[in-house]
Amino acid sequence: MTLTSLFLTLQGALGQGVIWGIMAIGVFISFRLLDFADLSVDGSLATGGCVAAVMMINGFPPIIAVLVAFFAGALTGAVTALLNTHFKIPAILAGILTQLGLYSINLRILGRSNQTLLKVDTLFKSVSKSLNISTQISILLIGILFTVLIVWILYWFFGTEIGSAIRATGSNEQMVRALGVNTNTTKILALMLSNGLVGISGALIAQTQGSADVKMGIGAIVIGLASIIIGESFFRKSKNFMLTLFAIVLGSVVYRVVVALVLQLGLSTDDLKLFTAILVAIFLATPTLLAKKRQTSIYKQQVGGGK
To answer: 52: which of 25, 114, 177, 203 fits an S-S bond (Cβ 3.0–4.6 Å)?
Structure first.
């Protein structure tokens, strides 16, 4: 592996990491803030990509396609939330049902299993031509711009009354309900926001890879969880909400860099899902193992001191 190829690999991984980080932020809202195991992410990411692709092919500006992808993703989140809140279907099963249904819906939207965007003037191509920079640099710049804007909006939103109610619902739903807050509404809003961000990520990912595919979201939930876990491991003690959101994006970047380096070292793409699962398992297990080690050390010190 030459230095040039390594530089190009890392450059691409940085851009992809930031774009996928938007999806990870969406997963963070449902899994961490709302404490809702939403598995519909795999479907809503593909929905965002498919909707954006169809719109751009039909002549709509790329930025408009991204915004519509947000609302398409939000709609999928609303379906999952309604299945759970109004029909009392368990969260995991509601997400699976939505994800399953979205596969057929995405096929209907796209009209085929995949659609190329190589001849379409995407957001990244436009910026690359306007600023006379490489596509990889434009991906990184646009990804950072979207991330900063999204984090700022979320920081403001979750400081409002409804945003605080959503966070409180995830912490103690019974208490929030006792205070007169309709927790069904907070769940619906949170899942709409979560999947809306996933839809934005899907739209941007489709433009970076030059195609939209109904299967492009497979494994997205695992990648999102990996990004959250890695990011939180860097800022475990931080209570700053904005810093936490940026940490999740950093976790996504680290994940993408690790994957890119491992692939450069010769890992088969067929083994990538297995590698991801092992990586997530390691990061999940490490805090528990370290806590046990600390407890054992404290116990030995107490026993030794007692003697």
So the answer is: 203
